[in-house]
Every structure is written in structure tokens, then in C-alpha cells.
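Quick one: C-alpha cells for this chain, please?
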Amino acid sequence: MAETLKTVTAQLPVNLVARMDDLATKLDRSKQWIVRKAVVAYLARAERERQMIQEGLDDVTAGRLLSMDAMERWADSLGTDHELPLPKVGE
């Protein structure tokens, strides 16, 4: 079954459209294909970013925290002969 499509419009800078035209020619694809790929990739990244932010906020609310001192000690140990293990919640 074919996917239902809806047309949207957007104003883009001329140089961006020129780059898109160039890439479309090189890939033998349409500008529509490029825009669709770009929007899908952007939405996936933005949705994942929002999910990670929410997970962090949930950790704070639940009290699952690391101290700055513990994180700094761990970070300072990286690349040394005595690297520390990753801190655990409550340290």
C-alpha cells in the first residue's frame, strides 16, 4: 500500500538549494529525495536527543546522581597509569 504524502514548502537560502541541486545531480536523485532523507535524519536525532534529556531529568528526580568531585577525579585519571573506574551513583 502506498504511503500517503503531503506537500510542505520551506524557504531555504539560495546557496543551500544550490548545494542540494549539485548533490541531487551527483547522486542521480531528486531534491525531494534529499529533503526527505534530511528531515528523517534530523527528526531521528532530535527525538533521541530529547529522549536522552528526559532520561537525565528522570535520573535527577529519582536521585540517581554523581558528584562533580567523583567525576573530576575519574576524568583526571583518564590516560594515566592509574585510571579510576567509572564512578557509581552516590559517589
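The two ends are 55 Å apart (CA to CA).
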